[in-house]
Each structure stands twice: as C-alpha cells, then as structure tokens.
Specification:
single chain, 132 residues, alpha+beta, 5-stranded antiparallel sheet, globular
Length: 132
C-alpha cells in the first residue's frame, strides 16, 4: 500500500505470535539490551513485546527506507512470560500528508490468547518525501 493512501481510522489488522525465548533473545541482542533485570526469569521485557508486535504490523504498510521512528508511548498492564501466545492489533489514528513527508500515528494493543490486555501503545512515524 502506498503511504499517500493511508488514512486515519484505517485498521491494520491483527497478528498473533509466540513469545518464544529465541525471539526474545534476538530482540535483546539487536536492541543492545544487556540489562540483568530479566536474567534468570522467563519474563519478557515490555519493550520487546511492543517491538515484536509492531514490527509485523508495520510490515503491512510497506514503509520506504528512511522512515523515522519519532516517538513511542506504552501503557503496560501486566508482565508476560516466554512461551505465551499474544496478539497485536493496530490502526492508524493520524495521517498528516505534507509536501515534504507524512506523519503517521498508530495505536496498538497487545493481548494474550484470552483477550486480556498486556500493553497498549502509540507510535509516531515520519515518512520523508511521501507527502502530497
């Protein structure tokens, strides 16, 4: 989908995935997180939960190279452990198309298999050169 066709209110769908330990380790490695807070536990960092869900949702937008992640807000409801299956649903809440680029604001929710909330978030992106 082209960035100029993205509109506020557009649902981006839902993705389900398992928080397996290797996926979480990969996230921590890529993020450069060497914190010992989660060592010896099966808890997943809430930033990993958000990133793993949102990366798939963002893939549906087919954003061009040069897209900048401007801001992120998270509201964490509870911890989640490795091995749990979760879902991430997202929608576009703002699409401001300008001559020099497009600002996109996405809201997303991550829930467990029973539909119970894990975290909610809001991500702001700047897509340069894609405006009207």
């Amino acid at each position: 989908m082209g960035v100029s066709s993205i509109v506020a209110g557009q649902e981006l769908g839902q993705v389900k995935f398992n928080l397996d330990a290797s996926l979480v380790r990969e996230y921590l490695s890529v993020a450069g997180d060497s914190s010992k807070v989660y060592a010896g536990t099966d808890l997943v960092p809430y930033t990993a939960v958000a990133a793993l869900g949102v990366r798939t949702v963002l893939g549906w937008l087919a954003l061009p190279p040069g897209t900048i992640h401007v801001a992120q807000e998270l509201v964490v409801h509870r911890a989640v452990a490795c091995g749990q299956r979760v879902s991430c649903r997202a929608k576009v809440t703002q699409a401001s198309h300008r001559r020099d680029g497009t600002f996109l604001v996405l809201e997303f929710a991550v829930n467990d298999d029973a539909g119970q909330p894990i975290l909610d978030g809001r991500t702001t992106l700047l897509v340069p050169g894609q405006g009207k």
